[in-house]
Design goal:
With about 650 residues, this protein is of the alpha+beta class. It has a five-stranded mixed beta sheet with strand order 2-4-3-5-6. A five-stranded mixed beta sheet has the order 7-9-8-10-11. The longest helix is centred in the last third of the chain and has 22 residues, at about 630-650. The protein is globular and about 75 Å long.
Length: about 650
């Protein structure tokens, strides 16, 4: 992704859903912090795609499908991007469904923070030199977590390439140049994230549900058939469709300076790990999670910043272990136990390098490798000595909007997500220039951060006016699982998906709501398992099977705490841990007795406009996405005030 555009995109999508989806211009773009449902496409008129047609060339790119296809889908993709692999499966299905009517064209856009993305792109193009592009393409997506050099060579052998020639072609400048040109083309067209699609020139962004693709393909297919009827040869339909297309996405209005990034007053605790001097011209405060894959991708960028700017930059690390990462909290504690012995950054590097092994035994192994005092290290983990510091960091992060990881504040200016060095550089350079002026004007070096942070807060643009809130709707709790007093003045009905990462992020917020408004709020759970989440529907059934035995909320918590393990075997394991009647639980999963309720929840949610997960209705008022506590507090306080007024009137 490119600087500036990525700032806005990843704030919404990484509060990660960082993955690489850019804004599509669609009026149905999901609310930040929520996942879109097929209902957005399925409801007539609900999904509108920008009608702009872009002139997207296909010359020289790998093509799969007939030259006489009436619809051409051009995809800009990255072999290491998890969203691209999801979209790959969608494209394969589309090719089966549309047959000779659909042609697929691949363009490369390896993102800079995916270490193996460009070598993989080169491997595919080099395979294409021997007529095996698509064979390699499919293998790369099928083995997305194994894209190192040795694995790439293995795939080359598997598909029968002349490996010596393939290796030579991979190093050829013509292929690197071709990738650079395609990346420039993507940027020119406004396709800054991956995957990005142009369907007969019309932009569709992200790994969207297949119905969204089909809706647009069907629309373009009807137009193409009209052209054929008018005498245009099928092989000329694409050229005719895009001949008057837009060649460049609209640029942002240019002023005398870039608009100020959102800025917050960000404190630097004395006990926070940091590198760089306290008198540095730029202080970057990072909120991170050792089990978050996006956080690990940010490490090379921070190392490059350190190498490039030296003593001009200080980086401060603060903890934000996310609830869906089971080992994140103990890893945070381990890092602080190492910090206590002067080896935070060494432990930091070890944990990010071994992100899939953060259990207690592994953490102790890393501590031994670092020659820490093991008795002291183990005591720190056993005692919960650093629980308060981790919690304080997390609360402070939430207070300034760092609800997703990684999140950075550059002298207070917000930059979200695992962004490339090029996204940090303009902000750092700008802050260094400000620092130089401040120092020249007499600001003491030790006061520099406080001054620049406050200046940025003062200069930040005013928050935009809140959009008009949807009309209050009647939302029945029905037979949904409910937590809280029956006569609570505020009812929150949540539509959720156990496999949705944004839904899991909302869990601690709802817990905070329950604590803050004890006795005044009840929460009801409705199901909205999204079709592109493989285990979501079975997890929904598992929750209802537990509900049948009086343990819905216990299962709810287990499912969200173990969101990456929702297969049948894992669900049965959680049921055993909850001491459920296993025969009855298994019968619930095998039978269809919960299907009617789940389907009814989904239909009701769609009818009410719950087209993304999570969606909440607070006394019928809509709140979409994994929003911070303050967003809930505003609505709840207003509803409690209304309830108080009604009670007073009744007297």
């Amino acid at each position: 992704m490119k600087p500036n555009v990525i700032v806005a995109l990843l704030v919404g999508l990484v509060l990660g859903f960082v993955g690489g989806r850019a804004a599509s211009g669609s009026k149905a773009t999901p609310t930040p912090g929520s996942t879109p449902t097929v209902a957005q496409a399925a409801k007539p008129g609900a999904r509108q795609v920008d009608p702009t047609v872009f002139k997207v060339p296909i010359d020289g790119a790998p093509v799969k499908g007939s030259v006489n296809a009436l619809v051409t889908l051009v995809e800009f993709s990255d072999y290491e991007c998890p969203f691209c692999s999801r979209a790959h499966n969608t494209v394969v299905q589309l090719q089966k469904d549309y047959g000779s009517k659909l042609r697929v064209v691949m363009r490369q856009n390896p993102l800079s923070f995916h270490a193996h993305a460009k070598p993989a792109a080169l491997a595919a193009l080099a395979a294409g030199e021997q007529g095996k592009y698509w064979d390699m393409h499919d293998l790369l997506f099928a083995n997305q977590k194994k894209l190192d050099g040795e694995s790439l060579e293995k795939y080359a052998r598997e598909i029968g390439l002349d490996v010596a020639k393939w290796k030579e072609d991979m190093t050829a400048s013509r292929l690197s140049d071709a990738i650079a040109k395609e990346q420039a083309l993507a940027s020119q067209l406004g396709a800054s994230g991956t995957p990005a699609f142009f369907i007969n020139g019309r932009f569709l962004s992200g790994a969207q549900p297949i119905d969204n693709f089909k809706s647009l393909i069907d629309e373009e297919l009807a137009k193409a058939e009209g052209l054929v009827k008018s005498g245009v040869a099928p092989g000329q339909v694409y050229a005719r469709t895009i001949e008057k297309g837009v060649e460049r996405a609209p640029s942002r209005p240019q002023g005398n300076a870039e608009p100020a990034a959102a800025a917050k007053k960000v404190e630097v605790p004395a006990n926070a790990p940091s590198f760089g001097p306290t008198t540095a011209k730029v202080t970057i405060v990072e909120w991170s999670d050792f089990e978050c894959p996006f956080c690990s991708r940010a490490v090379p960028t921070l190392n490059r910043i350190k190498e490039t700017y030296g003593k001009d930059v200080r980086v401060v690390f603060r903890q934000q272990p996310l609830p869906m990462h089971p080992n994140a909290k103990i890893a945070a504690q381990a890092s602080l136990a190492a910090h206590e012995q002067g080896k935070f950054w060494e432990m930091h590097d070890k944990m990010f390098a071994n992100q899939r092994a953060l259990d207690r035994n592994s953490l102790e192994k890393y501590a031994e490798e670092l020659k820490l005092d093991m008795a002291k290290f183990k005591s720190a983990l056993d005692s919960g000595k650093f629980n308060a510091q981790v919690a304080a960091d997390s609360d402070a992060g939430s207070a300034v909007g760092a609800n997703g990881t990684p999140a950075f504040f550059i002298n207070g200016r917000f930059l979200s997500g695992a962004q490339p060095f090029e996204a940090f550089k303009p902000l750092i350079d700008d802050e260094i220039a400000k620092a130089d002026k401040a120092l020249a004007a007499g600001t003491k070096a030790e006061d520099l951060y406080a001054k620049l942070n406050q200046d940025n807060v003062n200069a930040a643009p005013a928050a935009p006016a809140a959009p008009s809130e949807p009309a209050v709707q009647k939302v029945d709790v029905g037979n949904a699982p409910v937590r809280g007093p029956a006569k609570a003045p505020v009812t929150i009905v949540a539509w959720s998906d156990f496999e949705c990462p944004f839904c899991s992020r909302a869990v601690p917020t709802l817990e905070q709501v329950e604590k803050a408004y004890e006795g005044k709020v009840k929460i009801a759970f409705k199901h909205q398992p999204l079709p592109f989440h493989q285990h979501a529907r079975l997890a929904a059934k598992a929750s209802m099977a537990a509900h049948e035995q009086g343990k819905f909320w216990q299962m709810h918590d287990k499912l969200f705490a173990n969101q990456r393990a929702l297969d049948r075997e894992s669900l049965e394991k959680y049921a055993q841990e909850l001491k459920l009647d296993m025969a009855k639980f298994k019968s619930g999963l095998d039978s269809d007795r919960f299907d009617a309720q789940i389907d009814a929840d989904m239909a009701t949610g769609s009818a009410l406009g719950a087209n993304g997960t999570p969606t909440f209705f607070i006394n019928g008022r809509t709140l979409v996405g994994a929003q911070p506590f303050d967003a809930f507090k505003r609505v709840i306080d207003e509803e409690l005030k209304k309830a108080g007024a009604v009670a007073a009137d009744a007297k």
